[in-house]
Design the sequence.
């Protein structure tokens, strides 16, 4: 890892080094927070979390070959507090906060690599936009992208540490739910390019309003590189208020040429939905147009493809390279992943949920074959408007002409209540107190040929439902 010597790590974290003098210039091979992922030569970071304390594993990781540990205690105190044998040699960098130190190291490491970073920001669709952008850019560059849900104040640094000198560009997702978080994330990555997907109603519990969400997301520009690119959803009313930042004029994308209050530079024409197989369309860019099959269904995926096209053109790709990148993009488990079991078609979209993404997924479900069933759960972090927003989703589901709407969880009672207001009398609408109660009744609820949407906030653990239905 370029220039990540133990002495540099101590310097950039305001830490104190404990260990052999001749080891200070050792360059660590990796940085990990999971004791199970320790490899010889790595730096183990002892994080104090809600569930466990990484300091408890310092003896284990040292014996497994970690070059050093980043800790909030010196070696003597670690031995005393955690029962580590006195004859075990521990090389350590002591810091006041290991979480802050991780961010400081990540910022320093990215400066050493000096690679362009595309930061993905927004309320809905960050992960699918990140996947699409990475798929496009990978047609020309070696791309490092965020994996899984590593988009917070620990996940972003851990993503950064996966980057190596041979990587040419990074595509990093940044997720927040409080003011100040985006400022801290941007201070790590200093994005050269910012893609903003939309301003929705996620995290209203903490950010209070869409204007509050816009303000919090816009903290990304606090560390924006003035020679970079700004790529915004021109069909979003809040994003349309963002004008020039650091001398850079935003490039806008949307479904039509005319955006919310600005013309869109990238837009789509000749849109032909292909059911669950995706969407054909023509993408219009400042450099020309091309026909493409977006391999995942839904209007939101057209937006993602437009954002990816804008990023591709910004980084010098040809239109053919951009087209190939869009067509190569694959969905992730839990992120609108289509699964054909032989009896059922599952739409696995259970990684997360908010009102906008719920409605988008319900739109896709209507394109399914056979009976169309929505299995919906609670949406978190919606604050005082939670009940109202759940009920609005229910009303939308009711108008979607579905055969079944099955809701699980205490908040989703409001989804059922809303659905009963607008649904046909033929629609089977039921509420289940728990996932287990729902799964007990599955044989009587679902049949061969059904298309089933499974969607809820991540904490509902609806991945278990997908697994059961697959089996």
Sequence:
């Amino acid at each position: 890892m370029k220039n990540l010597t133990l002495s540099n790590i101590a310097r950039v974290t305001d830490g104190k080094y404990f260990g052999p003098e001749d080891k200070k210039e050792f360059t660590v091979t990796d940085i990990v927070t999971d004791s199970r992922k320790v490899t010889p030569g790595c730096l183990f970071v002892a994080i104090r979390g809600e569930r466990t304390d990484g300091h408890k594993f310092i003896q284990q990781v040292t014996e497994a070959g970690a070059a050093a540990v980043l800790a909030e205690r010196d070696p003597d105190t670690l031995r005393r507090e955690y029962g580590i044998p006195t004859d075990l040699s521990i090389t350590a960098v002591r810091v006041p906060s290991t979480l802050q130190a991780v961010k400081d190291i990540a910022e320093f490491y990215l400066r050493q690599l000096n690679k362009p970073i595309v930061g993905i920001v927004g309320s809905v669709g960050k992960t699918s936009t990140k996947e699409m952008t990475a798929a496009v850019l990978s047609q020309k560059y070696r791309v490092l992208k965020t994996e899984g849900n590593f988009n917070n104040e620990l996940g972003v640094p851990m993503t950064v540490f996966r980057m190596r000198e041979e990587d040419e560009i990074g595509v990093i997702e940044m997720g927040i739910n409080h003011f100040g978080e985006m400022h801290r994330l941007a201070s790590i990555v200093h994005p050269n390019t910012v893609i903003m997907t939309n301003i929705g109603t996620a995290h209203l519990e903490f950010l209070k309003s869409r204007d509050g969400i816009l303000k919090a997301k816009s903290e990304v520009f606090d560390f924006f590189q003035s020679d970079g690119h700004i790529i915004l959803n021109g069909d979003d009313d809040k994003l349309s208020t963002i004008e020039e930042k650091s001398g850079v004029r935003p490039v806008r994308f949307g479904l039509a040429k005319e955006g919310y209050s600005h013309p869109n530079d990238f837009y789509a024409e000749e849109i032909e939905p292909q059911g669950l197989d995706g969407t054909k369309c023509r993408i219009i860019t400042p450099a020309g147009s091309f026909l493409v099959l977006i391999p995942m269904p839904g209007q939101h995926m057209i937006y993602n493809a437009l954002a990816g096209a804008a990023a591709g053109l910004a980084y010098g790709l040809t239109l053919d390279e951009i087209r190939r990148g869009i067509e190569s993009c694959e969905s992730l488990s839990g992120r609108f992943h289509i699964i054909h079991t032989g009896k059922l078609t599952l739409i696995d979209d259970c990684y997360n949920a908010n009102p906008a993404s719920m409605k988008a997924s319900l739109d896709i479900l209507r394109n399914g074959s056979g009976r169309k069933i929505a299995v919906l759960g609670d949406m978190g972090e919606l604050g005082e408007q939670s009940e109202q927003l759940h009920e609005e989703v229910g009303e939308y589901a009711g108008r979607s002409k579905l055969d079944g709407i099955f809701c699980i969880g205490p908040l989703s009672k409001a989804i059922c209540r809303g659905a009963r207001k607008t649904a046909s009398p033929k629609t089977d609408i039921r509420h289940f107190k728990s996932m287990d109660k729902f799964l007990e009744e599955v044989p009587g609820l679902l049949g061969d040929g059904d298309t089933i949407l499974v969607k809820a906030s991540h904490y509902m653990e609806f991945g278990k439902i997908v697994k059961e239905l697959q089996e």
About this structure: The longest strand covers residues 266-273. The chain is about 35% helix and 20% strand.
